[in-house]
Amino acid sequence: MVCRLFCAVAIVCLAVNSAVAQDPTKVEPKHYKLHFENDRVQVVDVHYGPHEKSEMHDHPGGVSVSLTGGHLRFTDQNGKVTEVYAKAGEARWFPPFKHKVENLGDEPYNAVYVGIKSKVTMVGANSGQESSVTAEQLAKILTEYAEATAKP
After folding, report:
1. Upper half-sphere CA count for residue 152 (Cβ side, 13 Å)
2. Based on the structure, what is the number of domains in the chain?
3. Which residues contact 64 (CB under 8 A, 6 or more apart)?
4. Are 110 and 67 in contact (CB under 8 A)?
């Protein structure tokens, strides 16, 4: 009986550890620093030095805003490789994903990732009424705002 209980506890601990281990701020603290988090969003500062690589990690769906330009290689959990040329001020929506990152450039790359954890309730500035916004709708709003403020 004690052996079964011990084994069950060990399995639960390993499962929790493996679930937490995929969070980029835990797996890759050199590249991902938690800036802000609540039950709805996780805001993460992203920094990759020249030619630095990450381990496999997860992100919830959200918006990435590039603070500097960069040439990045993303490799997903299935081995699919995508190269991205990011421009400073550019915002992109990403669905939830798991990947590794490599900065292919000779300059550091910096960004902010706003991960959407759940459905968000917003209060209208003029009406005072609440309205529900899906993660995709909020991401579109954030992307449009980032693009509008980045233009000269």
Report:
1. 1
2. 1
3. 46, 91, 92, 94, 111, 112, 113, 114
4. yes
Kindly report the pTM of this predicted structure.
Answer: 0.67
**135 in Cβ contact with 143 (< 8 Å):** no
* Mean pLDDT in order along the chain per 10 residues (152 residues): 37 37 82 92 95 93 94 96 95 91 98 83 49 56 59 56
- In this structure, is residue 14 part of a structural domain? no
Q: How many CB atoms within 10 Å of residue 25?
A: 16
Q: Can you give the length of the chain in residues?
A: 152
Residue 128: which region, alpha, beta or left (left: phi > 0; alpha: psi -120 to 50)? Answer: left
Return the H-helix or E-strand segment holding 4. helix 2-21
Say if residues 44 and 34 touch (Cβ distance below 8 Å): yes
**Contact present, 27 and 55 (Cβ < 8 Å):** yes
Q: Which CATH number covers residue 61?
A: 2.60.120.10
Residue 3 lies in a domain: no
Domain of 97 in residue numbering reads as: 30-150
